[in-house]
Amino acid sequence: MRLLVTGGMGFIGSRFLHYWLEKHPRDTVVNLDLLTYAGNSHNVADIRDLPGYSEVRGSITDALLVERVMAQEKIDTVVHFAAESHVDRSILDPQRFILTNVLGTQTLLEAAKKHTVSKFVHISTDEVYGTLGDQGSFNEQTPLAPNSPYSASKAGSDLLVRAYYETYGLPAVITRCSNNYGPYQFPEKLIPTIITRALQDEVVPVYGDGLQIRDWLFVDDHCAAIDLVIHGGRSGEVYNIGGSSERTNLVMVKRILQELGKSEKLIRFVPDRLGHDRRYAVDTSKIRNELGWKPTHTLDEGLLLTLDWYRSNQSWWQGILDGTYQSDTFNSNKEGEGP
């Protein structure tokens, strides 16, 4: 295959690149990333010399660049991770999320249609479904009811992908994952925030009462699911991907503090996020039954792997906290020009 991976400098995108190049070493992969604050060139440092890998710095909203990359690299598969994804930032600056997540996705779809790609996999989120009560779970037929500017922008991009399949016959598939965690996750997200603050004996903030419930998915299990969707997912379909590991935020905080040998006195309850969804949970029956996927890491196993990684790689997250990670040069002479 000849893949275009968008957002490959970010958390899930970079883990997918590692997974894919290890499992499919004969494939060609182009990593298109704007290297915004959430992108980190260190995330892909150990794959840069692989023969099938290259990177291009640029925005998914740049139609000329996207088309040039697809044409010159003869891309046949697009895996679209690139997105603004932090809910708090979307509350402060919704427009950026609309531009990247909606317009950027439409730009990619148009180029994919023009260059007749064989598969377009759009990586979305369970947050597009809204919030759940104490019982039940989201399935692929659950109506979309996003509650934040972030989730609304992702829902908009999902609908565009559906429209390009229905209108133009673009072979597109949507995946909606639950909360990912694992190595290389940017420290603004819940689990790395807890870990990095606790390791420095700093206050660990918890929104509201901390009883919001999330389903946790180890990032490597997510990558394996995407692999199955690329090879066997049916065009026009949606696949939910979840870890079947629901926990309240407060339980996660306390568990991590316990594993790190830190006191719960570090916990500080802070005013709740605006429009904070109470509970997410996804029904993964479809991807299990159709594609044979299931997570291979329990939450305990994945969490211990994650904690060990953050303890062993303090220079990585310290560079993010002090801002020095952004001083690194993007490893490409193709900036804004395509391959």
UniProtKB/TrEMBL annotation:
Top EC class, one word: lyase
Member of which family?
Belongs to the NAD(P)-dependent epimerase/dehydratase family. dTDP-glucose dehydratase subfamily.
Keyword annotations for this protein, in alphabetical order, are: Lyase, NAD
Q: What is this protein called?
A: dTDP-glucose 4,6-dehydratase
Listed under catalytic activity are: dTDP-alpha-D-glucose = dTDP-4-dehydro-6-deoxy-alpha-D-glucose + H2O
The coenzyme or cofactor needed here is: NAD(+)
Domain NAD(P)-binding: from-to ranges: 4-303
What's the domain of life for this entry?
Answer: Bacteria
InterPro entries linked to this entry: dTDP_Gluc_deHydtase, NAD(P)-bd_dom, NAD(P)-bd_dom_sf
Answer yes or no on keyword Lyase.
Answer: yes
Molecular function (GO) terms listed?
dTDP-glucose 4,6-dehydratase activity
